[in-house]
Write a structure and sequence with these properties.
five-stranded antiparallel beta sheet, single chain, four-stranded antiparallel beta sheet, 11 helices, 300 residues, Jelly Rolls
Length: 300
């Protein structure tokens, strides 16, 4: 009975997440990716969320974000110095599990903070921005993110609903041709302007202009209705999300998930070859393996 209850909870959570919002990926893709893995945890976050269930959040109740908005030029200057020194870049050693797929079209990043992981490089190279971030405990992760001309990030949803996403325009094309679309609603970045959205809705981004877009990108702790729920969110973030830490340079912390991802990236080369050989056979084998794992869980 316990197994049946767990499976029912998992299926119910996954079904809710699939139908949440106006835009959705295929059910196959929803079931066989990280959405399925964290479905019960994310359903918990939605159930006790203190912010409305909508793509863009106009009021998070996090007053500290005003300091980031007001100091956007200070933050932009430090980002510009990093860009000039070519410090904002893709992961060098396949050790960024969270954003690896983004690098394919030229997206680049520099971590300022990642949950409980240590990034000495951030404090050394961006002291004023790091000082501002330390004054806002609700900011759990932060990075500079660059989207070059012609780059596109395909539709996806982020794996963890315990956070909301904050973007602050630093050096952008200031044009509608550089945008993000969240659950079908489009937003174009502008210098000095910020937006908060729920990154667990399907979203994608594209820069169709001839100018590079640079933003401050933050994960904010999702406000929850009850203290005990918020404590669970912080514990989960500390244990699980910190494990996905990726370094800017040697000396920065690398989380366990990102360490394991190095091995996964090697295996992935063979997986992609298999997929290119015959996509239909690849999908059938992938589904069979996942269903086999589920069957083992049910019957053992």
């Amino acid at each position: 009975m316990i197994k049946v209850g767990i499976i029912a909870l998992w299926l119910g959570s996954l079904t809710y997440i699939y139908f949440r919002g106006k835009v959705r990926l295929s059910f196959f893709r929803t079931v066989f990716n990280h959405t399925a893995l964290l479905a019960p945890v994310n359903a918990f976050m939605y159930l006790f969320s203190a912010v409305p269930a909508r793509p863009y959040i106009s009021d998070t109740g996090i007053k500290g974000l005003v300091a980031l908005d007001e100091n956007w030029e200070v933050i932009r200057a430090e980002a510009a110095n990093l860009a000039q020194a070519e410090r904002i870049r893709a992961a060098a050693n396949n050790d960024d599990a969270g954003f690896n797929s983004f690098f394919k079209t030229g997206w680049k990043r520099f971590y300022l903070k990642w949950y409980d992981a240590e990034h000495p490089s951030a404090a050394e190279l961006c002291p004023r921005t790091v000082a501002l971030l330390r004054q806002i405990p609700e900011v759990k992760a932060a990075l500079f993110a660059v989207l070059p001309p012609g780059a596109k990030l395909n539709p996806h949803r982020d794996p963890y609903a315990g956070s909301l996403r904050y973007h602050l325009g630093l050096d952008t094309p200031n044009a509608d041709g550089c945008f993000i679309e969240v659950d079908g609603q489009r937003y174009s970045w502008r210098n000095g302007e910020s937006v908060v959205f729920d990154e667990t809705y399907i979203h994608w981004a594209e820069n169709t202009t001839d100018q590079t877009r640079t933003i401050l990108f933050c994960d904010l702790e999702r406000p929850l209705k009850y203290g005990w729920a918020a404590r669970f969110n912080r514990w989960f973030s500390r244990v699980v999300m910190t494990a996905a830490a990726s370094p800017n340079q040697e000396g920065d912390q690398v989380g366990l998930v990102s360490r394991l991802f190095r091995f996964s990236a090697v295996v992935g080369q063979y997986r992609r070859r298999f997929k290119r050989w015959n996509k239909t056979v690849y999908q059938l084998v992938r589904a069979a393996l996942i269903l086999g794992v589920i069957a083992l869980i049910i019957f053992l």
